[in-house]
Amino acid sequence: MDKYNINAIYMPAIFLMIPIVFVIEVLRIDTNKLIETMGKVNYEFDGITITAGIVSWIFFFKVIRYIGKHFVENRIFENGNRFPTTLYLTKDSNELSSAIKAKIFQHLESDFKLELSHLDQLNAEEELKEINSLVGSIRRKVKDGTLTLKRNIDYGQARNFIGGLFIALPITLLCNIYCIYYSQYGIIEYTLFGISLVFILILLFHVSIIKKFADEYARMLFDDYITLERN
Question: Keyword set for this entry (predicted)?
């Protein structure tokens, strides 16, 4: 289990389970019976027996990552073609100085024995596709540079947490409606109202949040690549 998966995938999922636990408490679901029942349902894969509870956790991890990747990231960054790591290296972008971009391309030519002078002749769409491929080479070269990995984890946490909100928020809102309908109010109920409000605010500003973390990751990736020790 690597550091990225633990921090960028599992941690957001565990955090999102907190309001779900509150919902279970509000609805007075017998958790002991639920846990006991799920513990009795077993699945066997390659001779290894796992419970339904573990399967449910794994499924939840996969779902929030899928939503975060395919319905949040790909929608915002047009399937990666407008991700900052790609966009910032285009000739029309002013996010990085000309000197920094020139240095990055010089290293790419040297590290991978490439000739990149033709990039200036490409149209916008072709340029994005080629740079997207070049960024993959940069990532492989930098690998898990300490600061780049941290920024990658930060971005992954934000993306996957927001992806999980598309599951957690409807559940908490339905529970809020239940509480109002049955005039059920208390510390847990008010806490759930507060959590729902925070979730709504995050979703309202999720594009800006994702772009901020993506920007920080891109800048750190390029910084690590430029300062990488070379023979």
Answer: Membrane, Transmembrane, Transmembrane helix
